[in-house]
Amino acid sequence: MRIASSLLVATFISGCSSFTNTSAPSPIFPSTESVAWIEGSPSGPISDGEKISQMISALKKVNEDWYYTWHTYPSPQARLMLLDSSGHAICRVDFGPNWLGSTCGHSKPGWPPMAPLSSDQARNFRNMVGGKWEVN
What we know:
The protein is of the alpha+beta class. The chain is 26% helix and 21% strand. It has three helices and seven strands, in the order H-E-E-H-E-E-E-E-E-H.
């Protein structure tokens, strides 16, 4: 029985390597000029060109370590839709306490790729959207 248990545990552990995040290409965030407004929760609509520019600039700085998670996509603390002048969605951006997810420039079905955020980055995004969640 002990040998069978050991073999079962060894098989499980060797199979765990398939439960890893897979790398993803960085999102392609739109230019500031193509975004007419940002609709979001909890911030509400943002149409001020300066704020839109700050948001797009900050998003473009998160350009490494993007990945697709092997498990369920986490629930975002805030979700923003970037909209063009016709009101059509360009893409979506999700914020968590220490991560960012985005559909910008991605056509892969399912949940979007995500990237870890430093505490400073997470706090900056939280403040931009008027969030009140805890930052890790």
